[in-house]
Specification:
single chain, extended, plasmid, 4 helices, 2 domains, 0% strand, mainly alpha, 82 residues
């Protein structure tokens, strides 16, 4: 049996489960949500694969996009009760 079709179970804190559940789309499973959330490029990944950017306006634009992205993620975070 292929590892792609074999289910694996992991133990995560309730707050992590709740966060993934909050970010899960209606048409995807929890596994698909985890795969989507950890499988994509981040802006930092992108910058390591591109040439250096010398233009200050482009740097500011990238920082603004990154700040917006992290702000959206922070809004979905569930407070840690510990």
């Amino acid at each position: 049996m292929s590892s792609e079709t074999t289910d694996k179970h992991i133990r995560v804190p309730a707050r992590v489960h709740d966060r993934v559940k909050a970010l899960k789309r209606d048409d995807e499973t929890m596994g698909e949500a985890v795969d989507r959330l950890i499988g994509g490029y981040t802006l930092l990944d992108f910058t390591t694969e591109t040439e250096s950017i010398d233009d200050e306006a482009e740097r500011a634009e990238l920082k603004e996009a990154y700040d917006e992205y992290t702000g959206e993620l922070e809004q979905t975070m569930i407070p840690d009760d510990t």
